[in-house]
Amino acid sequence: MSDDSNAPLNVRTFSQAISDALDEELARDDSVFIWGEDIGTYGGIYGATGGLFEKHGPERVIDTPISETFIVGGGLGAALTGLRPVVELQSGGYFGIAMDELYNKVARWRYMHGGKFTVPMVVRLPEGAKGAGQEHDVSPEALFLSAFGAEIVIPSTPADAKGLLKSAIRDDRPVLFFEHAVLYATSGPIPPGDHLVPIGVADIKRPGSDVTVIAWSRMVIEALKAAEELDSEGIDIEVVDPRGLRPLDKDTIFESVEKTGRVVIAHEAPKTGGAGGEVAAIIAEEMIECLEAPIVRVASKDVTLPQSRHLQQYVLPQAAQIVDAVRSIS
Amino acid sequence: MSDDSNAPLNVRTFSQAISDALDEELARDDSVFIWGEDIGTYGGIYGATGGLFEKHGPERVIDTPISETFIVGGGLGAALTGLRPVVELQSGGYFGIAMDELYNKVARWRYMHGGKFTVPMVVRLPEGAKGAGQEHDVSPEALFLSAFGAEIVIPSTPADAKGLLKSAIRDDRPVLFFEHAVLYATSGPIPPGDHLVPIGVADIKRPGSDVTVIAWSRMVIEALKAAEELDSEGIDIEVVDPRGLRPLDKDTIFESVEKTGRVVIAHEAPKTGGAGGEVAAIIAEEMIECLEAPIVRVASKDVTLPQSRHLQQYVLPQAAQIVDAVRSIS
Amino acid sequence: MVTNQQQVKFYEDMVRVMLWEQRAMRLMQEGKVLAGYHSGRGQEAIPVGAITPLRDSDCIMYAHRGFGYTIQKGMSMVDMFADLMANVGGSTGGLGAGIPHFADPKLGILGQGGTLGTCFPIAAGAGFSAKYRGTDEVTICFFGDGTSNRGTFHEALNVASIWKLPVIWICENNRYAVSVPSEKSTAGRIVDRAIGYGIPGRSVDGMDVVSVYEEVTEAIDRARSGEGPTLIEAECYRFRGHHEGDPQVYREDGEIDEWRRRDPIESHRQRLIDNEVAAAEQLDGLQAQMASEVELAAQEAENFPMPGPERVFQGV
Amino acid sequence: MVTNQQQVKFYEDMVRVMLWEQRAMRLMQEGKVLAGYHSGRGQEAIPVGAITPLRDSDCIMYAHRGFGYTIQKGMSMVDMFADLMANVGGSTGGLGAGIPHFADPKLGILGQGGTLGTCFPIAAGAGFSAKYRGTDEVTICFFGDGTSNRGTFHEALNVASIWKLPVIWICENNRYAVSVPSEKSTAGRIVDRAIGYGIPGRSVDGMDVVSVYEEVTEAIDRARSGEGPTLIEAECYRFRGHHEGDPQVYREDGEIDEWRRRDPIESHRQRLIDNEVAAAEQLDGLQAQMASEVELAAQEAENFPMPGPERVFQGV
Ligand SMILES: Cc1ncc(C[n+]2csc(CCOP(=O)(O)OP(=O)(O)O)c2C)c(N)n1
Ligand SMILES: Cc1ncc(C[n+]2csc(CCOP(=O)(O)OP(=O)(O)O)c2C)c(N)n1
Ligand SMILES: [Mg+2]
Ligand SMILES: [Mg+2]
User: Which sign does the torsion angle of CA A260, A266, A270, A273 carry?
Assistant: First the structure.
């Protein structure tokens, strides 16, 4: 944890951290509102908007129809006219429905129109494998690497979730905010007060000297598990959590690679087309002289995730694959 | 050209090559039909379906409404029930409108339903910068790297366009077929007869020994121009055209990299999030011991392409950037 | 007119659907199915009434609300149980579970989209295909009231109308999309959207299997004879939560009891008895027979092994 | 009732729009604009009539058919010429050309989407925003008949209706989407789609600026007073090709001549003269005045330099 605050910590789940952030920002700024499917009386299917409807009322916590192009495109219209929408896609798997709105409009509206507008909008996308099926259990962050106007933020802990979401809401750029559904139930300490985490700053989740493991979202948890196992073998890995992909904190990554000369990149999205490719390519382009081994990517197998949880075990990456990958280059 | 036929060659434009392929396949197989916006009496806004309406009739050459989710999703429905649709998005820039259909449905329907169906469908996507604006002038092929059921085919010459499109139409898998709009007017020789080019086989567009330049679509033309200039400096580049991204012909790429030890990857999509990242990462993972220099990517600058053609010159990659890149690692 | 035999068959079919679901839920409780489930209890009259008039060669795009659609279209109950358990006996060979993507091309079961509203363009495409191939096959597309607000609805209904495609659009309006009441999310009447496309729109009592059957039969006749699509809105209600585990905080007081009095299975049964079409004992007998059919299917399905890791790379 | 002064103003405004376009085309012919263009000739009555009743604080999402929308909403003609030439004088600071993405937040000009149908959800969102902020601002969303077949139409009109958002949906039905005739791509009547959403639908003669003005004014009043959206279908015709260079193979014989007789500018002029609202000389004078306004703007715009490479990285 990079937070330097020494005040007492409050233990909250990731999902509570999200709703705390929304609650505080709704209270702070009248121009903030939230909408999505079942986020009102129901409190969101992951509970991440629980209690907000009761507290902030139906004008600001709004249930929409099943209309994803409106959820995103309508949010853009509101952002262009003075508001700060925080919109939710009930599953990040619905990104494709609103892809034109996300990729071509929300991300690009400012630039396309000469920089005349700001687009202070957050799109929350629950992602990752959680047993909800092929179309839902996706981690599509890599598909937005070329949607340049938009920031890509991906927290892995409750503290980061809260602090990054609050920063995202205050940011004048559009932010795609990915929340791994399996993390919602995890808990952790959150610094008190107006906890903000800057966007685009990586966090060394575990310092180490032998191998750099760049991991985000759920894979940070797996990397930390792997670190323990590897530690017992005398391999000391450094776990770098970029906490998002744009802005990408290359400085922190490069510093770590310079130190270790060995890199593993771990994400839950399948290897091919995952953002690990981009990160690996950056290193291969700018840091190759530091490398003492191949850059290894740990990721889901290159298939659509099967619906069956039984088969998912053969596809999804876990700590064990990180351990293997690290060993293979140590 | 890797075609081994010795018969006389027919010079055709890229756009004629496309319509020849469609014409021949429509004639060959009753279950083939085409639909899209303005592909009928108008012959397609790039002329790539010219004459087909008159020849094959309104039942098989069909103008659709401006309804991209139907164009793609309806094609899928037809493919699942015995037909071989070849559907056109009037611009590849509309991929986002039908992203759910393309990425989640067309590519995945077979696997999601246990392999019970075949999806013999081709989606034609004109891509690339042609002065039609930010939302149109895109090269989104990288976004489908993780859409595993679908093949990704990208021709750079009229002969490849014809031969690959005919193969794609006969293929039982869905194929995303990207046609660079600037290439439509280029011309080249096409082998006579039932000219088929296998999908997933790279073509060495120019053999060379010093540096491997992996390029596709319009960048193949630029790479060949660069080759001439570099040749005069005594640098002999090998231009490898993968002719698509899935299946990716790693063998041909690896063989070339083994020989040269130096790699430049060139595509028109912006560098970040472009498929060059994936290709670079594969090499960094599997071939790093052969590399004698950083892997350099030549691509568009990391911005949304400006509408202005004047500004586009500062963004789009040309032969000169390939020359620079090659020099930088020679 | 519906024959007495068909009337009894409706009862049998609805009971089968209900019992299959009950048995599937037991498998879930036993931990043999690791997946969410959207119960169709209360809405059995719609798949049963609508699919009865279809032929094998006709197609359906089904919805996530229970499994009446696939059962009624003739899929093996064994396959379906096995799909839920994700073992190799399933139609997906061990791939499926959750919101399973059952399919059977031979029975015209084209599958389901997990992103709601997927069904509309695909159904229109299947309708196009039937016409292109010169057949008189029809396609039914099932969807919920909430799903009708997806843009794909508009694109597909427009095309189907202008091209007179043989598609029957059946909206199961059960008044909620998860927690959101239809009147808070859906402007006007869904059935009235037919007017904008210049096609027939019909409202039907979705709790009455006979009404559903009759209305859909008419729509099928129109479709087969080249007169194009019909939009049918079936008013209904789901008796259980959106998914198993739904706290159902959103229902209005007493609402559910009122609808339970219109239980499609119970009320049809009563009508059969009242009209002396069948005696209570006969219907009880049928019910027992269905129970054992379903039980046998479940047991057979449980015998299949789970797939190995190689399954993951098959059928890509 | 429309005052005489306003009647004359309509003429002036339509002429300005027409002349701006003519001048823009000269710039294209001179090679100073490197971009496609979709002429609005023949459809001037719609942007002029519809935007006249708007306030500065009201918003528009405009379409690609000519530039009447932005001119009438008050954008500087210099900026717009400069945008087309992609020099630094443009509203986009040298970024725009082609299907330019002009915008001016202060004038409520929210921009345009190059993927048609973008406009619908954004306009609904702007309408929501006006209501949320407690204002009585309204938003007009302009779109073509072809564009009405995008799914976003459905999603946005439904939400606007259910939430009673102050949005006026104006369809310019010019009978074609590029080459495809509306009756081959669009089922039923577009205006009838209002019925499905339970909102007022109005059909209006889009060649008559006064009718457009009156109908839109009523819709704006409804919107401002919280009664929600209106769908207006304006029947019209484009006199030139879809884009400059369009071979126009798809028109029916004589069709264009018939519509040209209803030229919105000519027929309004004739009406002014016939009703003795204005004399021909006065109108000719206005026309000359507009021509020199436009000419001055074009010349001013031509003086700006082209941006340097750094422009590419600004305003991301
Ligand atoms: C595009 C999309 N948005 C949201 C969801 C999540 N979701 C699953 S079922 C459901 C409610 C559907 O309501 P309705 O169409 O009325 O069908 P019902 O569940 O009432 O049968 C929602 C929102 C989804 N699967 N797909
Ligand atoms: C989503 C999308 N599909 C297709 C196009 C290409 N296109 C540009 S204008 C046009 C025709 C639009 O027709 P209509 O809406 O009737 O407007 P009009 O041009 O007649 O004014 C088409 C197909 C596009 N820009 N966006
Ligand atoms: Mg419902
Ligand atoms: Mg039109």
Answer: negative
Q: Give the helix/strand (H/E) hosting D169.
A: strand D167-173
Beta strands in chain B, from DSSP E residues, in sequence order = 10-13, 32-36, 61-63, 84-88, 122-127, 151-153, 175-180, 187-190, 203-206, 211-215, 237-241, 244-246, 263-270, 296-300
Task: Flag if C129 and B59 touch (Cβ within 8 Å).
Answer: no
Those residues with Cβ within 8 angstroms of residue C217's Cβ, 6 or more apart along the chain or in another chain: C53
What string of DSSP letters covers A64-115?
PPS-HHHHHHHHHHHHTTT-EEEEE-SSGGGGGTTHIIIIIIITTHHHHTTT
Separation in Å, CA of B69 to nearest CA in chain A? 9
Q: What is the pLDDT of residues A179-236, one digit of tens each?
A: 999 999 999 999 999 999 999 999 999 999 999 999 999 999 999 999 999 999 999 9
Residue of B nearest to A305 (CA): B112
Whether residue A278 and residue B277 make contact (CB cut-off 8 A), yes or no, is yes
Which chains are adjacent to chain B, needing at least 3 Cβ pairs under 8 Å? A, C, D
pLDDT at site A3: 44
Q: Which residue of A has its CA nearest to B279?
A: A277
For testing the chain D interface, which of C154, C159, C165, C199 should be mutated: the one with the most D CBs within 10 Å? Answer: C154
Which two tokens mark B7? 């018969």
Quick one: which atom of ligand 2 is closest to the CA of D174? 20
Q: How many CB atoms lie within 10 A of CB D113?
A: 30
Q: Can you tell me the ipTM of this complex?
A: 0.98
As given in the structure block, the two tokens for residue B193 are 């007869």
Nearest ligand to the CA atom of A92: 1
Q: Which among B131, B135, B308 has the least Cβ separation from residue D96?
A: B308
H helix count then E strand count, chain A: 11, 14
B13 Cβ neighbours under 8 A, 6+ residues apart: B158, B184, B185, B186, B187
Q: Which CATH number fits domain D36-246: 3.20.20.80, 3.40.50.970, 3.30.710.10, 3.30.1380.10?
A: 3.40.50.970
B202-260 pLDDT per residue, tens: 999 999 999 999 999 999 999 999 999 999 999 999 999 999 999 999 999 999 999 99
Q: List pLDDT tens digits, range A265-313.
A: 999 999 999 999 999 999 999 999 999 999 999 999 999 999 999 999 9
The parts of chain D modelled with pLDDT lower than 50 are none
pLDDT given for residue C97 in this prediction = 65
Sequence ranges of the domains in chain C: 36-246
Chain C interface includes D199 (CB < 8 A)? yes
* Closest by CA position to C234, among listed C256, C210, C253, C258: C210
Alpha-carbon span B165 to A291, nearest angstrom: 41
pTM of the model: 0.98
- CATH numbers and ranges of domains, chain B: 10-190 (3.40.50.970), 203-329 (3.40.50.920)
